[in-house]
């Protein structure tokens, strides 16, 4: 049976909630995030702001230079979570197969659905109408036979878009895609591939597998599958977090090592509290350090599963010895925990997770507030 997969992505979610709730903000270039003088970061930008080149994760100081008329509002995560809950309630009316990716996007498998719709396109249209009517927000949707194609499709005609890739359109659609449309291929990997003459998605298919492995490592086989339009990943509801952590951008660079250690210890405490609330253990602790020149490094340590506060905190602080913190000014610090298991898993060691994946992890939405900057 051909699956009908939807990827639904809310449009400029945080900014759209702000514009919905305050009519004075509508039609204006708007950024949600921290103050520019306090090294704030853009968490979301309205489409009016994006026209000036303002995008999420950009330093707010740069955003203001690009758009002097930019209106900046601090984030209100309680309102965003409330809006998200309303949207996901609509999703779950249609199908129990809803896989959240964040507060504002999800995959849905609507091959069978409560509305009795035969076509995924009809489900997507009804979802968009319901979301607009009940929340006052817009969403873009992609409909395709698999998750890879559905996610690309949802971003094709933003905002308020609907793009459908039917089975007979898969190949023509793939033919027009650049290599960085592939899941897992960011700017750095795309540059490496293009240096090898692999510029388009279809070039990945024809590439020598050994050459591809030398370029992207273990991703090679997976990318060739995607390049052929093959993605058998199921939609998995209630996906468990693979990591949790927090990070902070500081108003002034940190130069004192004792201060940096205290900051790391405090963030480790937040992660340990998260583990305790869920009654789970972690094998890996990771710290993130961004220096004043924006060079960013991570350092990790893996050992026996634990949520012991003293042990995990000590491990996080000791990782600073593998950095230049205290010798180079630091603008951002972060701590996260990974590779979870339960105490029951310790009875049967073969059940312990050994997931050492560093790049492709998900973070708990409770921790997003720390990523905006003060």
Describe the protein's architecture and organization.
This protein has 13 helices and 12 strands. The protein is α+β, with helices and mostly antiparallel strands. The protein folds into 3 domains: 128 residues, MutS, DNA mismatch repair protein, domain I; 51 residues, DNA polymerase, domain 1 (Orthogonal Bundle), CATH 1.10.150; 129 residues, 2-Layer Sandwich (Dna Ligase, domain 1), CATH 3.30.1490.100. β7, α6 and β8 form a beta-alpha-beta unit. α4 packs antiparallel against α5 and α12 packs antiparallel against α13. The longest helix has 22 residues. The chain is globular and about 60 Å long. The chain starts with a strand and ends in a 33-residue tail after the last strand.
């Amino acid at each position: 049976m051909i699956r009908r997969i939807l990827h639904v992505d809310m449009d400029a979610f945080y900014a759209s909630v702000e514009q919905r709730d305050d009519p004075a903000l509508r039609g204006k270039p708007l950024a949600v995030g921290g103050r520019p003088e306090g090294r704030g970061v853009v968490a979301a930008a309205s489409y009016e702001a994006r026209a000036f080149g303002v995008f999420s994760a950009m330093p707010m100081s740069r955003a203001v230079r690009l758009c002097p008329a930019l209106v900046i509002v601090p984030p209100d995560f309680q309102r965003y979570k409330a809006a998200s809950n309303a949207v996901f309630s609509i999703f779950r009316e249609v199908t129990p197969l809803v896989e959240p990716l964040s507060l504002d996007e999800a995959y849905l498998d609507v091959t069978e659905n409560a509305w009795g719709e035969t076509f995924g396109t009809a489900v997507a249209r009804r979802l968009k109408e319901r979301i607009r009517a009940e929340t006052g927000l817009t969403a873009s949707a992609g409909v395709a036979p698999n998750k890879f194609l559905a996610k690309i499709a949802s971003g094709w005609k933003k905002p308020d878009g609907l793009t459908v890739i039917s089975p007979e359109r898969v190949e023509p659609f793939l033919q027009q895609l650049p290599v960085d449309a592939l899941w897992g291929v960011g700017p750095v990997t795309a540059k490496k591939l293009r240096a090898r003459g692999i510029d388009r998605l279809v070039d990945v298919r024809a590439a020598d597998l050994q050459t591809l492995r030398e370029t992207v490592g273990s991703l090679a086989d997976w990318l060739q599958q995607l390049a052929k339009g093959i993605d058998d990943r199921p939609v998995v509801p209630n996906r468990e977090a693979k990591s949790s952590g927090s990070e902070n951008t500081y108003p002034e660079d940190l130069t004192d090592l004792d201060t940096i250690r205290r900051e790391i210890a405090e963030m480790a405490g937040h992660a340990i509290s998260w583990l305790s609330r869920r009654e789970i253990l972690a094998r890996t602790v990771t710290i993130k350090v961004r220096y004043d020149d924006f060079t960013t490094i991570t350092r990790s340590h893996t050992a026996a599963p634990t949520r012991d506060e003293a042990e995990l905190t000590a491990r996080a602080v000791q990782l600073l010895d593998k950095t230049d913190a205290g010798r180079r000014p630091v603008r951002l610090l972060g701590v996260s925990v990974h590779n979870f298991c339960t105490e029951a898993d310790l009875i049967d060691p073969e059940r312990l997770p050994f997931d050492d994946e560093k790049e492709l992890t998900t973070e708990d939405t409770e921790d997003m507030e720390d990523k905006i900057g003060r």
